[in-house]
């Protein structure tokens, strides 16, 4: 059995930033494990720009952004092992992994940081009726085909879902000569960033059909077309609104699922609202010494926020190893009020230090709204915004002086207040 101070599972943007954050905090015995051949995670196939504006104050492509952190890791001589599959994580922080070069082994860590990222929701989870024919792909799979493998999935395309990957693939497929007939979204609003709607759909005259869904998939040997229908307030198709789209490709951009199988093996509690770990303000899970960050914790909209969060997890993991992280005491639950979904963290320790950061997604589109933080029924923070939308995360920073009396609080409530008509 090998030993290490900090073991990081995942070599994508979160894992790389966590390693840098731990090193900058003082850690030297760090190990990154990644199952892929090269570091960088999903960013390797994200060749579009728009990354790095917050972190590096310049616009980068996904591979360029990943390369910045890979160079930092290598410059700091932080060891990493690729093509290494983690099979198990125990509550006492023993990680079981396997690789071609080292075989099956166990690694005992003083702290573990979970950075496994997320996966796309497949067709099987949708229950869409129709044939099980070739030609139906997740948007990320199509992105890998086009950007890494140099292969075109098809020429006549319909996209189901308006997540950011789907929007970006609408533009990418158009660049490559395909005809994108429509982007079909079940909800009355898009789940992607506004800038992606403008740059990827509007600029190429690709229709965005809100409150619509695919109700039939046709084809035997290969996809021949799909039927799209409008849905009502109950999200059920409205008879008589069906419209056929001949196509050879259907791309699914219907949500991301955090990869938390290893988290559950370690005994980490999972939050139903995020499908990620339950964490406190230090990003420590319900298992002491195990931390979580990035899209395995909750699905982010910008990779810059993933890096910022993961650096914090790395620094706090080292503080835990040094026995400098406040432990014990009561944890005050963070409650989701009107309009708030997927809040992180779910608890704040009564011994919380410094600034506490909260992130969440609005449940709907709200205009001229206020985001309010209350403790014991008293408003301690208010932030007014022109528009809130599910496609863009809300970030709140609560200064330490606002948390006076936290040790006597029953809960912290975060809610959205909209003006009355």
* CATH class designation of the largest domain: Alpha Beta
Number of domain units: 3
Q: Name the beta content range.
A: 25-35%
Mean pLDDT over the residues: 94
Main pleated sheet: 7 strands, mixed
CATH fold-level assignment of the largest domain: FAD/NAD(P)-binding domain
Helix proportion of residues, in percent?
10-25%
Can you count the beta strands? 29
End-to-end distance, in Å? 65 Å
Shape: globular
Shape-level CATH architecture of the largest domain: 3-Layer(bba) Sandwich
H/I helix tally = 7
What is the name of the CATH superfamily of the largest domain? FAD/NAD(P)-binding domain
Low-pLDDT segments, ≥5 res: none
The helix/strand class is alpha/beta
Describe the structure.
- The protein has 421 residues and is an alpha/beta fold.
- The chain folds into 3 domains: 1-120 and 257-325, FAD/NAD(P)-binding domain, CATH 3.50.50; 122-254, FAD/NAD(P)-binding domain, CATH 3.50.50; 329-421, Sandwich (Immunoglobulin-like), CATH 2.60.40.
- It has helices spanning 13-25, 62-75, 139-149, 164-175, 194-201, 261-265, 303-321, and strands at 2-9, 30-33, 49-51, 60-61, 80-81, 84-89, 94-99, 103-114, 118-120, 136-138, 156-160, 179-184, 208-209, 212-218, 225-230, 243-246, 249-252, 256-258, 270-271, 276-277, 290-292, 331-336, 340-344, 347-349, 356-362, 366-375, 378-388, 394-398, 412-417.
- Strands 1, 2, 5, 6, 7, 8 and 21 form a 7-stranded mixed sheet that branches.
- β14 (212-218) and β15 (225-230) form a beta hairpin.
- α1 packs parallel to α2 (62-75), α1 (13-25) crosses α7 (303-321) and α3 (139-149) crosses α4.
- The termini are far apart.
- The model has no long low-confidence stretch (mean pLDDT 94).
């Amino acid at each position: 059995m090998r030993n290490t101070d900090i073991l990081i599972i995942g070599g994508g943007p979160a894992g790389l930033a966590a390693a840098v954050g731990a090193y900058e905090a003082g850690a030297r015995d760090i190990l990154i494990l990644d199952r892929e051949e090269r570091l960088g995670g999903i960013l390797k196939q994200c060749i579009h720009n728009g990354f790095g504006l917050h972190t590096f104050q310049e616009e980068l492509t996904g591979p360029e952004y990943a390369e910045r952190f890979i160079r930092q890791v290598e410059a700091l001589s932080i060891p990493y092992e690729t093509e290494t599959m983690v099979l198990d994580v125990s509550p006492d922080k023993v990680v079981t992994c396997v690789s071609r070069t080292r075989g099956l082994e166990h690694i005992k860590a003083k702290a573990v940081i979970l950075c496994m990222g997320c996966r796309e929701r497949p067709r099987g989870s949708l229950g869409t009726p129709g044939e099980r024919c070739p030609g139906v792909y997740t948007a990320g799979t199509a992105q890998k085909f086009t950007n890494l493998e140099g292969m075109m999935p098809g020429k006549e395309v319909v996209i189901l879902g308006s997540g950011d990957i789907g929007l970006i693939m609408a533009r990418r497929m158009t660049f490559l000569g395909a005809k994108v007939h429509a982007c079909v979204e079940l909800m009355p609003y898009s789940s992607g960033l506004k800038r992606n709607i403008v740059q990827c759909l509007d600029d190429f005259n690709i229709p965005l059909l809100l409150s619509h869904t695919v109700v039939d998939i046709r084809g035997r040997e290969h996809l021949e077309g799909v039927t799209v229908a409008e849905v009502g307030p109950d999200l059920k198709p409205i008879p008589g609104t069906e419209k056929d789209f001949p196509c050879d490709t259907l791309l699914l951009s219907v949500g991301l699922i955090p990869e938390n199988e290893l988290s559950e093996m370690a005994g980490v509690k999972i939050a139903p609202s995020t499908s990620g770990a339950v964490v406190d303000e230090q990003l420590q899970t319900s298992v002491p010494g195990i931390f979580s960050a990035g899209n395995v914790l909750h699905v982010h909209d910008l990779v810059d926020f993933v890096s910022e969060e993961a650096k914090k997890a790395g620094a706090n993991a080292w503080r835990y190893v040094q026995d400098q992280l406040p432990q014990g005491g009561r944890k005050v639950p963070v409650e989701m009020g009107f309009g708030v979904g997927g809040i992180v963290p779910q608890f704040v320790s009564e011994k919380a230090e410094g600034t506490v950061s909260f992130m969440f997604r609005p449940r709907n589109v709200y205009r001229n709204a206020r985001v309010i933080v209350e403790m014991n029924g008293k408003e301690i923070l208010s932030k007014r915004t022109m528009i809130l939308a599910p496609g863009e995360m809300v970030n709140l920073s609560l200064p330490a002086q606002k948390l006076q009396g936290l040790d006597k609080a029953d809960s912290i409530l975060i809610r959205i207040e909209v003006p009355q008509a």
